[in-house]
Amino acid sequence: MEIRPTTDQDLDVFVATMHAAFGLHPETPEEDGGGVWWSAFEMDRGLLAVAADGRPVGTAAAYSFELTLPGGILVPAAGITAVGVLPTHRRQGVLTAMMRHQLTELRARGEFLAVLLASEARIYGRFGYGPATYTGRITVDRHRGAFAAPRTPGSSAAAPAGSVELLRRADCGELLEQVYDRYRRAQPGALSRPPRWWALGAGQPPIARTPRYVAVHRDAGGVPDGYASYTLTDGTLTVDETVAADDAVTTALIGFLLGHDLVTQVTFKHLPPGHPLRWQLADFRAAQVSSDSDWLWVRLLDVPRALTARGWFTDGELVLDVDDPFLGEHHRYLLTVRDGKAGCVPTDRDPDLSLDVRDLGSIYLGGSTPGTLVRAGHVRAHHPDAAARADLLFYAERPPHCLHWF
């Protein structure tokens, strides 16, 4: 078997092989030039696994994204996608070979972070990826969805000065792109949506040009600072995503959606952990969490570079003993944080924590705490206070959240 890079000339065979691996059939691009979800593939970043007889049997690809780290720091990240092996060649080492080849290639490009969305939760941990952001779905009985009066005047979620305008997706693509880009730069765990994605309509709504209504919030000066993309079918209003500059704008958009006529329930997809919606309702039980799942998985390719890239909010130090069994590596690092900046250097000091690189990926953005993974039996704390010190050190200013699908 050979694993080789792809070019633009491989697009058709790459797409056909990938779809066959998932038992799907490729869509037909729209006549108006709108792309299908895979139309933003970067074919200079793809891989084909080819059998000895020349038949393609596996695919893997990567997008070029920016990831927002704690502290509002933007760094490049490879978005791993289109990973599949034909049913005829599974459990023969094809996937493992592609993953090893891809990680080696990413390092050769100078990249220190990779991210993906896992189709199955059991697959990617063995390749060093750990779940790092989470997403939930909340459904509200609209007739019981009245807001409670704020108990503290002047709270941060109070209605902002501004207005909500209703637009069609076809009429506001540039607006959506601009609002999302401002949002993702301040939200830890968020990924960029490159202009090419919007131009091609590649991805899921509202990037895709699938018909949607869009509630756009404008501030007192008329500048758009939030939106919610939605559909209404058989009495259920389903919100693709809610993007807003702050909690007050989010509240204004949710209030608009909960006031929509001819609706029996409103389902909000992709809400971050700890979203205050249920607490904002007069009837707490009017909102039900219908799903709570992992979303973005993170893989560190260069631990010192990754740890010194993000922002930090507590001074301190930890000795981390990091095992990377997939790449056959084991290193011990001294992480020192002073005034929001970190240093990370090799050390022979006794460790405070011993952990797998996948678990370091899970705590990297602050979405999971080291203490939780210690209690789960995945991370070993060598001192009684090590987990608590690590929890304080890896704290993020807000829960990481990723809306982007790729």
From TrEMBL:
Acetyl-CoA binds at residues 83-85, 91-96, 119-120. It holds the Pfam family Acetyltransf_17. One of its GO terms (biological process) is aminoglycoside antibiotic catabolic process. It comes from the Bacteria. One of its GO terms (molecular function) is aminoglycoside N-acetyltransferase activity. Residues 1-154 form the N-acetyltransferase domain. InterPro entries: Acetyltransf_17, Acetyltransferase_Eis, Acyl_CoA_acyltransferase, Eis_dom, GNAT_dom, NAcTrfase_Eis, SCP2_sterol-bd_dom_sf. The active site is at 124 (proton donor), 406 (proton acceptor). Keywords: Acyltransferase, Transferase. Homohexamer; trimer of dimers. HAMAP family: Eis. Belongs to the acetyltransferase Eis family. This is GNAT family N-acetyltransferase.
